[in-house]
Design brief:
By secondary structure, this protein is α+β, with helices and mostly antiparallel strands. The chain contains 9 helices and 8 strands.
């Protein structure tokens, strides 16, 4: 196995620092980033200074905290606008929302998790909305689990053997129980969640595949937990699966449904 070159290692560190801003607080300090990534403060400081000169991050002089800058915003907006996955899914998300009345979402697989790429809000007065662009773990919620279930076995095992944070009281954090749930998802073709990522939310999701057969994202229908009943899941799951398959075809997937 080839060792990473100094250049690729440095690039990976820069990417890791930027990705931290997609997870939680909107501002981060040198010490917090250093602890999270197990890097020295000097290395983190140099990375942030380099990013700041390019407008990727901005330093608040009073708090000494960094936030994403205008260049990062422009980069994200361009990626959002040009996303093939988003453009392939948008009209089908509208149709799914119109049919179910609940919010339809699109997620994309990213390093160490997933992000919501788009949503079409439900028609009910009380409805679910999601935060676009924030990274969430794959083990909590139907959108993440539907992707996790179809990752390569080695990748799946590494995630299950890692840190499985409890986002709510109903998040499944036992690796064996989660592994069994993922096997069932692969068998039935969809995932469901009741309060696993957000306490009062329920959802049904199915995976989206790319041209070479790899899982690249997922779609979901989500709403207040009290409306995502067994009857709702039974009725809506086939429609969610069908919509995910249609998006996969648009993305070039030619494998078995």
């Amino acid at each position: 196995m080839n060792e990473p070159t100094p250049g690729t290692e440095a690039a990976a560190r820069v990417a890791d620092v930027l990705l931290l801003f997609t997870d939680g607080p909107s501002t981060l300090g040198v010490s917090g980033i250093a602890r999270e990534l197990d890097l020295s403060k000097a290395v983190v400081h140099r990375i942030l200074q380099s990013l700041a000169t390019r407008g990727m991050v901005v330093l608040d002089r009073e708090s000494r905290q960094y936030r994403l800058g205008p260049a990062a915003t422009a980069l994200g907006a361009r990626a959002f606008r040009d996303s093939d996955l988003r453009s392939s899914a948008l009209d089908l998300l509208h149709a799914l929302r119109d049919e179910t009345g609940e919010t339809a979402t699109l997620s994309a697989l990213v390093p160490a998790g997933r992000i919501y790429l788009d949503q079409v809000e439900g028609t009910h007065e009380i409805k679910m909305t999601v935060e676009l662009g924030r990274r969430f773990p794959l083990h909590a919620g139907s959108s993440g689990k539907s992707m996790l279930a179809h990752l390569p076995a080695e990748t799946r095992r590494r995630i299950l053997d890692g840190s499985l944070a409890a986002l709510t009281a109903d998040t499944v954090t036992d690796p064996e129980a989660l592994d069994a749930a993922l096997a069932e998802i692969r068998a039935v073709g969809f995932a469901r969640s009741g309060g696993e990522r957000q306490a009062d939310a329920g959802s049904v999701a199915a995976p989206v595949f790319g041209m070479t057969g790899e899982v690249i994202g997922s779609i979901s229908v989500c709403g207040p937990r009290y409306r995502i009943t067994e009857e709702f899941v039974e009725k809506v799951a086939p429609r969610v699966v069908d919509t995910a398959e249609r998006i996969s075809r648009r993305m070039g997937y030619r494998g078995e449904p």
